[in-house]
Design goal:
This protein is mainly α. The chain has a single domain, classed as Growth Hormone, Chain: A, CATH 1.20.1250. The chain has 19 helices and no strands. The protein is globular and about 60 Å long.
């Protein structure tokens, strides 16, 4: 467990770095271009690449020792952040204000891919729980992983807003590169007792999607769980694409960053609660009940233009995310052989994220040309404006509420399926 805790600390350092850079770049791009479409496209590119790369990254985790995979992740991040820095310092500042600028998008893509490289860690970490933690304590260990993610959000949120407001992108990159070097050095000092790499029979160097599908099909209801989470992520793409734009319409960049730091305590509290109490007799039932509460919150947390209402809803929402993630991880760790876990986690990630890019690319134009006009100059002003409010931020808010209603309906339907009935007994 001492080595596991050291790995968690290292994951926090890497997570802080990637979250810090991702938040800061998103804030900066929106403030430079004032374009909702650009931020939604950024989200689409990121989620799309996460989706497409899950199969491949999962096979890397299964193919090599987990520490080696994590080390490769940080080195790749370091290279990409350095290239982004070269693009930034060699480009006139005025060029970045143009949403169609090639240099702007080259910078965005390099930063996003640098952050994406950290996804290898996200796949490797739950597979390490399988051989580093006893089975009856794995749900609690998964809760600690959720807390580690929350800690990364907490430690990254405040400086990301402040660095954009008061220092600029250059220093953001300096800090990002420096923290990545620290993560690499620290990881080299950690001893992980992984005696040998466990390979799937006959598939040492293959992604082997067909074999992974056969394993998942052998577990009753597991495909249903993956597809349920896929639909949730389809709707969740709305929030990933537009939440920063909505928040920045209410407060300044550095206040938004400080707020996210406070809200990220929800990740930590939710994860620590799971680490202490576990997930109960049925992790799947816990997962679905958490989803119901999350979608109810999404219906109401933007019903009025209030940073306090938004903050309260987001805090509870973030407390529940570690519950959902730990439940799925615990089920996979229990029913999937170790030699396939990297591929299964990667496969689940790819499938579950597959719908989000479509949402992200669609939602920017939908918000820009339908919901925002509806609540600024359209019929929404007359029908809803007297109590819901009017303006750009209220158009985004209405879109959030509609998404929450759809998510709640789908969750209640899913709880009446055969897949749910089978998984709830695991």
């Amino acid at each position: 467990m001492k080595s596991f805790y050291s790995i968690l600390i290292n994951a926090i350092v890497a997570g802080v770095t990637n979250t810090f850079v991702w938040f800061a770049v998103t804030f900066w791009v929106y403030l430079e271009t004032r374009s909702v479409m650009v931020t939604s496209y950024m989200a689409g590119i990121y989620i799309g690449t996460v989706s497409a790369s899950g199969f491949f990254l999962g096979s890397i985790v299964d193919r090599y020792r987990k520490k080696t995979a994590m080390l490769f992740s940080s080195i790749l991040t370091l290279v990409l952040f350095t290239l982004a820095g070269i693009v930034y310092v060699s480009t006139p500042p005025a060029v970045f204000k143009d949403p169609d600028s090639f240099q702007l998008w080259l910078f965005i893509v390099l930063c996003l891919f640098g952050v994406l490289a950290g996804n290898i860690r996200n796949i490797a970490l739950p597979t390490m729980v399988t051989f580093m933690v006893e089975e009856d304590s794995r749900d609690k260990a998964n809760g600690l992983i959720g807390s580690a993610n929350g800690t990364a959000f907490l430690l990254a949120s405040i400086p990301s807003g402040f660095v954009i407001s008061f220092m600029g992108v250059f220093w953001m990159l300096v800090f990002g590169i420096g923290l990545t070097v620290i993560a690499i050095i620290h990881l080299l000092t950690i001893r992980v007792e992984e005696q040998q790499v466990v390979h799937a029979e006959g598939h040492k160097t293959k992604i082997d999607i067909k074999g992974t599908i056969r394993v998942i099909k052998g577990i009753p209801g597991l495909f249903g769980l993956i597809f349920f989470n896929t639909f949730n992520n389809f709707l969740g793409g709305v929030f990933m694409s537009l939440m920063d734009a909505y928040g920045l319409s209410l407060v300044s960049a550095h206040v938004w960053g400080v707020l996210w730091a406070i809200l990220s305590l929800g990740f930590i509290i939710g994860g620590l609660t799971i680490a202490k109490t576990g997930l109960g007799k049925s992790p799947i039932r816990t997962l679905f009940l958490a989803n119901i509460l999350m979608w109810v919150i999404c219906i109401f947390f933007t019903i009025h233009s209030s940073i306090f209402l938004l903050s309260g809803g987001l805090f509870i929402f973030l407390c529940l995310i570690p519950v959902v993630e730990a439940a799925e991880q615990t089920v996979i760790q229990k029913v999937i052989p170790q030699d396939r876990q990297g591929r299964v986690f990667g496969f689940a990630q790819s499938i579950e994220q597959a719908a989000s890019p479509l949402t992200a690319f669609m939602i920017g134009p939908i918000a820009q040309y339908i919901f925002i006009p509806f609540m600024t100059t359209g019929k929404g002003v007359e029908l809803l404006g007297w109590w819901f409010g009017t303006g750009m931020d209220r158009g985004i808010a209405l879109l959030f509420s509609v998404t929450g209603v759809l998510g709640l309906i789908i969750t209640l339907i899913a709880m009446r399926t055969r897949a749910y009935a089978k998984l709830v007994r695991i």
